[in-house]
Design brief:
This protein is α/β, with parallel strands linked by helices and 426 residues long. Helices cover 26% and strands 31% of the residues. A six-stranded mixed beta sheet has the order 5-6-7-3-8-9, sandwiched between helices. A five-stranded mixed beta sheet has the order 12-18-17-14-15, with no helix packed on it.
């Protein structure tokens, strides 16, 4: 096997919380000399790793991270917020230095991290293209050869001679991605590039990343979009609390991540709030209970794919004059909104109400689902929302009993009737 294009060994990054501007030039030299010799930061003054983690003013963003990336790999780096993904990319991009450990990189890096990095705000879009090319070691002639392609892909032709400080976040990211992808660095580092921009731009990004990989270049891709990670990446790295939890196939990493997400949001499918004063809600509606169950009783209480799902929301109207209705999103384990629906307007009299709906059987795919609830005030849009109120699981017993443990890669799986007959001879 060829030598890795990126080699990370025992990498750690520690931050002192609440400490600003306490270093001297002597301290900086001491830290730099220690890094060159592969030694820990001499100014941390900490004990063993476990003791270090217990100190309240110390935060380990990364801890003892080691892995290798080879040419042509598309590595999906995933994990919850705060897991250390962005810190890792900043170290690889040489924006920040590690506290301990080292990293070897064989090739030029093009990075697109959070909005605001990589471009000078006072320079125009065109000038920033030349600036980034120069940083990558390209000549002006090489950059000119790519200029038209970069501008066309970004879709900001009309504003290319405007200072980028006047760009919207979407315009900024479109140009920054176009620059990073078209200036042909050996390594492309992307942090949440799909979080900004419309669906058309996102599709262009995915297509370009796939093209870059087929050209033999390496991509490090951080995203919370598990569908994009699975469809694009060849390997997966799951970070948890600054440590590597999974390093292997992308399916293995995504599956473990989604299990962790589901476990961290474990909620009963039936929840009640007997005290109106402490119940979630706002100044005119308070929740009393939410129940998710099979609409037709099952012996084991499981919600099968063919079973209709009953959703029941109980609430108190505590103020008369406000006109509102309830809305919910059903979110699957890939963070995709599978469906959304709303109640009718709540009746005017004060009191306790129950709203029910039934999701038909043979519609939802197997997997874990969560209920996200909104209160919609007439003329004002979303007036109150809570992230997730209830969770439930749909099981595919028929396929499980047949010995197949997989899952179809789709959000819904309706039972669609087909007919087949012998075609008449022509």
């Amino acid at each position: 096997m060829s030598a890795p294009i990126i080699s990370v060994s025992n990498l750690s990054k520690v931050y002192r919380l609440g400490v600003i501007g306490s270093r001297t030039l002597k301290d900086d030299f001491a830290r730099a000399w220690a890094r060159l010799r592969g030694q820990p930061d001499p100014l941390l003054k900490l004990g063993d790793a476990r003791a270090e983690r217990r100190e309240g003013n110390i935060f380990w963003a990364l801890s003892d991270v080691s892995f290798e990336v080879h040419q042509g790999d598309i590595l999906g780096i995933i994990g919850k917020n705060g897991a250390g993904k962005s810190t890792l990319l900043k170290i690889i991009s040489r924006i920040t230095a590690p506290s301990t450990g080292f990293i070897r990189i064989n090739g030029r890096i093009g990075s697109l991290l959070e909005v605001g990095t990589g471009f000078h705000p006072e320079l125009t879009g065109r000038e920033n293209i030349f600036l980034n090319g120069a940083i990558l070691g390209m000549s002006r002639a090489e950059i000119r050869g790519k200029l038209d392609e970069i501008i066309a892909f970004s879709g900001v032709e009309e504003f290319i001679d405007t200072p980028v400080k006047r760009y919207s976040s979407g315009m900024y990211v479109r140009l920054a991605f176009s620059v990073a992808a078209h200036l042909e660095p050996e390594i492309l580092v992307l942090d949440e590039v799909l979080a900004v921009g419309d669906a058309v731009f996102q599709r262009k990004c995915l297509g370009k990343m796939s093209q870059v990989a087929h050209q033999g270049r390496t991509v490090l891709f951080v995203s919370h979009n598990m569908v994009a990670v699975q469809s694009l990446c060849t390997r997966g790295l799951l970070l948890e609390d600054g440590r590597i939890k999974v390093l292997g196939s992308v399916d293995q990493a995504v599956t473990k991540h989604l299990e962790s997400v589901t476990q961290s949001r474990v909620m009963a499918s039936e929840r009640e709030w007997p005290d109106v004063q402490k119940a979630p809600g706002n100044d005119y509606v308070k929740l009393a209970a939410i129940r998710v169950r099979p609409a037709t009783p099952t012996p084991d209480g499981l919600i099968r794919m063919e079973t209709p799902v009953l959703i029941e929301i109980c609430y108190h109207r505590v103020r008369r004059e406000t006109v509102f209705h309830l809305n919910f999103h059903l979110v699957n384990q890939q963070e995709v909104i599978v469906l959304t629906t709303s109640t009718a307007r709540c009746p005017a009299p004060l009191g306790r109400y129950v709203s029910r709906c039934v999701i038909p059987g043979d519609l939802l795919n197997s997997g874990d689902y969560r209920l996200r609830l909104y209160v919609i005030k007439d003329g004002a849009g979303h007036d109150w929302a809570d992230e997730f109120f209830a969770a439930f699981t749909v099981v595919d017993m028929a396929r499980r009993e047949a010995g197949w443990m997989g899952r179809e890669p789709c959000a819904v799986l309706p039972k669609i009737p087909w007919t087949t007959e012998l075609a008449a001879a022509s």
